[in-house]
Amino acid sequence: MIGVIDLGKDDNSDRTNTQINTTSRLMDTKKIALTALLAAVYALGNYLHGFPMIGVPGKTISLVRALEMGYGIILGPVLGPFTSFLGAVVGKVLTGGSLFFTPLAIVSALMASTLYRREVFKFRGWIIAAIILSVLIIGWYATRTGRAIPYYPIMHFAGLGIILSARGKIAEYLHSDDRRKLSIGVALCSYPSTIAGHMLGNLLSIYLFKLPPIQFMAILPVSALERIILTILSTIISTPLIIVVRSLYPDLLEKS
Questions:
Q1: How many independent structural domains does the chain possess?
Q2: Using an 8 Å Cβ cutoff, are 149 and 217 in contact?
Q3: Which end of the chain, N or C, is surrounded by fewer C-beta atoms within 10 Å?
């Protein structure tokens, strides 16, 4: 009898392991499919004409940048940045654009993914996001240009202030089933995330193109308006996207 019982337990264990493995493979397949789809959407989004920036001839706001925060929330701190970066690179290659600023997509998506998750690698997600943005701000002051215009990162300090004041509340709102709270959470997540990408763009501009301080100050109002618009667009796009993904792939979004 003991032998029979043990065999039954082994059979149940095998079935359970098989079910777990099957579920895991299905989730991996869904992630791969969703990653490919979203990367393609990002790449094709590069063909869209952005909003013209008032006062800056020839300058437009790239609409596709608003996707990065949603990608980070949905796909996590690894696949989210990878998908955004892949889409950015493919999109620039297809449209003949410059690849210099494609890494910005990584930072924005990574920031959003950490703000969505209560814990990332056993650390509070919002703490990791605050550290990333703080390092970028310190990087600004590490340059001669940054020290010449110390008040320039006011937008970035505002983003850091949102993280430090809201802290885990952002993740709480992002996990909410209430659409209003979810929208607020996406907005609170999107601004610090897009502003982090903006600061990386500033640093790249300093090191690659040696832009003078006066040029940064001249476009400061334009940059502020650009980031506000991207935050609004991200909220409009990402909120329904999150709801759809939750409905179609309820196990994909982490609830931790």
A1: 1
A2: yes
A3: N
Within 8 A by CB and 6+ apart from 34, the residues are: 74, 75, 245, 249, 252
How open is the CA angle 125-129-133, to the nearest 5 degrees? 170
Which residues sit opposite 60 in a β-bridge? 52
**How much of the chain, in percent, has pLDDT values that exceed 90?**
67
Answer whether 0.90 is exceeded by the pTM: no
Structural domain includes residue 23: yes
Q: Which residues pair with 119 in a beta bridge?
A: 124
In 3D space, the residue among 37, 44, 19 whose CA is nearest the CA of residue 95 turns out to be 44
CA proximity to 196, closest of 148, 150, 129, 144: 129
Taking residue 201's Cβ as centre, other Cβ atoms within 10 Å add up to: 16
The tens digit of pLDDT for each residue in 86-126 reads 999 999 999 988 898 899 999 999 999 999 999 998 899 99
Residues 6+ apart with CB under 8 A from 177: none
Return the number of other C-beta atoms located less than 10 Å from residue 135's C-beta.
11
Expressed as residue numbers, the domain containing 146 is 2-248
Residue 78: CATH number of its domain: 1.10.1760.20
Kindly give the pairing relationship between strand 119-120 and strand 123-124. antiparallel
Does a structural domain hold residue 8? Answer: yes
Sign of CA dihedral 63, 90, 128, 255: positive
Burial class (CB in 10 A: 0-12, 13-18, 19+), 68: buried
Q: Is residue 256 part of a domain?
A: no
